Structures are given as C-alpha cells and as structure tokens.
Amino acid sequence: MSALAIFWILWHGSRYAPALKSAVNAKWPWGVLDVLGCYLIIALLPAVAITTLKDASPGVKSLGTLLAELLALGVILVWLGIKYHTSAVKRLFSLEPRSGSGETFPPWVKKASLGLLTGLISIPVILRIHLISQLLNEYSHPTLEDMQNRTELLLIVAQAIRAIFVASILEELFYRGLLQGFLQRLQASAKPSLESLLAGGERCELPVWKVSSSPPPSWPIFASASFFAFGHLNLGASAIPLFFFGLILGYLFRRSGSLIPCIACHSLLNAYSIVQILIISG
C-alpha cells in the first residue's frame, strides 16, 4: 500500500500538480489563554468521568470517557466559534464551500485523501523507529492493553472509537490547530501586543494567508511535535517515534492550513494499532 501511495503521488505530480501547491502560512487568531483553556478542558472532563465511574465496569468506564471527550470537543469548538467566528473553525476543518464549479468533491475530501496517502507512506517508517526505540525503553499503552486483555464488547467498541476518531481529532485540534496555530501566529507577527498574545485576536479576525517564495520558520512545527511527544511520555518508548510523527503532522498542517489531513493521517496510525491488537488477541 505504501508503494502504491508513493507511485500515485509521483504520477499525479508529473501529470498535474503537487498535492501541496505552495508554502502557505496561516495566521490563526488564538491566544495563550485559548491554548491553556482548551488543554484544561481536554484534561479535566475525561478525568472527572473516570473518577465518577471508578466503581463501574471497564466497558462503562470506557464509554463514559468517550462521552466526556466528545463533550470536551464540543465545548472547545463552541468556544472558538463564539469567541472568534464560525468561519475560522470551518476553515480549520476545511468545511468551506467548493471554490469552483469544476470541483467534484468538497475541499475536506481532497485533504483527507492527502492525509491518508501521507499516512501510508510515513507510518511504516514510524513503526520502524518505534521498534528501534523499544531497545531503549519498554513500550506500554493502557488502551491497547485493555483491549488485548478483555473481551467485553462495549469496552472494545468504545476504545476503538476513542482511539481512531475522538483522540485523533482532539489531539490534532490541540497540538496542531491551537498550539502550532498560535506559534505560527507568533512567528508571523512583528510586534504583537501582550493583550493580543494572551487573549487572542479580534472576534472578526480570520486566518490570513501569506504566500512567500521562502518557507516560513519551522520552529513552530518542532515545538508542537515536542509537546506532542511529551504528552505521550506515559506510553514509554512511543514518545520517540511520535515526535517524528508530530513533525510530519505539523508540516501537513502548515502547508495545507487544515486539520483534516492531520486527522486522517493520525486516525490511520491509530486504526492500524487497533487492528493489530485485535488480530493478536484473536
């Protein structure tokens, strides 16, 4: 599959145009308080669900955590939509209408395909790095271990939905959309005011697209990838390959200006892990 994906990209690029036509840098309006507030929402709501359901069965706990993460996602999207503008959120997820009558599919479909192709090419490399990193530290993943050691259908379904869909969306929204988006705004602004850095831009401010002959600085990508890896230190050795995976996702976000390819690529990696565990556990 990876070889076919590479062949398609080379063929498509030779006949038409590259998947990412130009180096664009999106200036998003988020501020420090938006990043910290969304982090607290993502961290606290699932923690409250786990504490409340501490005496419930593993399947009910997993379902409760799934619902809490969905609630956190909804709260964050409503927050950003009200504070800034729904157009900014729509652009973040490529939900804007087709740009021309000749386009067959909406923008998010094309960008999701880009993310899947990127995943087919990059995930085998990430898995090789993961195997090497296990020589340095033992790998541990509580979600996958729960699915491997238990046969409760509710737990398996809830954990699979969490890993493949909800976790991918939440993590990409925070690490790429909010954190890297804020850092891109920081490096693109000459002299931002302290109030603007803390509280964000004006409500009506939409992403400003800048096309430049020279690529923008890459430090926001490295910073978001580092935080992404740091957030997975509890998984042992996986933090090392996830740093490199974060670099790929950060590059996708900077070049496409959308979370959709990042979510698609992230979901593909998580889906591979889930299917692997289900096959091993029988």
Strands across the major sheet, in which order? 1-2
Q: How much is the average pLDDT?
A: 81
The percent range for strand residues is under 5%
Order of helices and strands: HEHHHHHHHEHHH
Low-confidence stretches: 6-18, 203-213
Radius of gyration: 19 Å
Cα distance, first to last residue? 24 Å
Oligomeric organization of the protein chains: single chain
Helix content: 55-70%
Structural class: mainly alpha
**Helix segment tally:** 11
Principal-axes shape call? globular
- Tell me the count of domains: 1
Largest sheet: 2 strands, antiparallel
Count of beta strands: 2
Protein architecture, described:
It contains eleven helices and two strands, in the order αβαααααααβααα. The chain has 282 residues and is an all-alpha fold. It has a two-stranded antiparallel ribbon. Helix 2 packs antiparallel against helix 3, helix 5 (107-133) runs antiparallel to helix 10 (239-256) and helix 5 (107-133) crosses helix 11. It is globular. It starts with a helix and ends with a helix. Mean pLDDT is 81; it is low at 6-18 and 203-213.
Task: Briefly say what this structure is.
This protein has 282 residues and is mainly α.
